[in-house]
Amino acid sequence: MTKSKILVIGDAPLVMGFKLAGLENGITATDADFASLFEDALSRSEFGILITNERLLNLLDWRMKKKLETLAYPVVVPMPEYSGKSEAGDEIRNLIKRALGFDLGKK
After folding, report:
1. Which long-range contacts (CB under 8 A, 24 or more apart) does 80-84 make?
2. I want to staple 8 with a disulfide (CB 3.0 to 4.6 A). Which of 13, 26, 46, 102 is the partner?
3. What is the torsion angle, in degrees rounded to the nearest 10, for the CA atoms of residue 32, residue 96, residue 46 and residue 34?
4. Residue 7: partners with Cβ closer than 8 Å, 6 or more residues away
């Protein structure tokens, strides 16, 4: 089994924050180019986790949002805005449950 990498794709503060934390792979995106950069990142098999801004994720068209609902790999982790309040994103536990097919938290 090969290791999967983590990719951060989002606005400059998000990408820089994760780079300062030690993650190497980051792509800075704007509202205008996020959809194409995100779709490209989804197709790259070396990335198992995509971390992105929840706000930018909500800008995607309905077709891509529908695709993300059924996608198990890579796991997409939406990060809330600076205020810390989440809009409508899944909790990380639910994302992991969807990717694995079972809930790790249940006994």
Report:
1. 80/54, 81/53, 81/54, 81/55, 82/13
2. 26
3. 0
4. 25, 26, 27, 41, 44, 47, 49, 50, 51
Between CA 98 and CA 1, with CA 76 as vertex, the angle to 5 degrees is 75
Residues 22-64: pLDDT tens digits? 999 999 999 999 999 999 999 888 999 999 998 898 888 888 8
Q: Whole-structure pTM over 0.90, yes or no?
A: no
Rounded Cα–Cα distance for residues 6 and 8 (Å):
7
Q: What is the end-to-end Cα distance of the chain in Å, rounded?
A: 27
Q: Where are the domains of the chain?
A: 5-100
Residue given tokens 């990717």 in the structure block: 99
Among all chains, which residue has been given the structure tokens 């097919």?
101
Task: Name the DSSP letter for residue 89.
Answer: P
Question: What CATH topology corresponds to 5-100?
Answer: Rossmann fold (3.40.50)
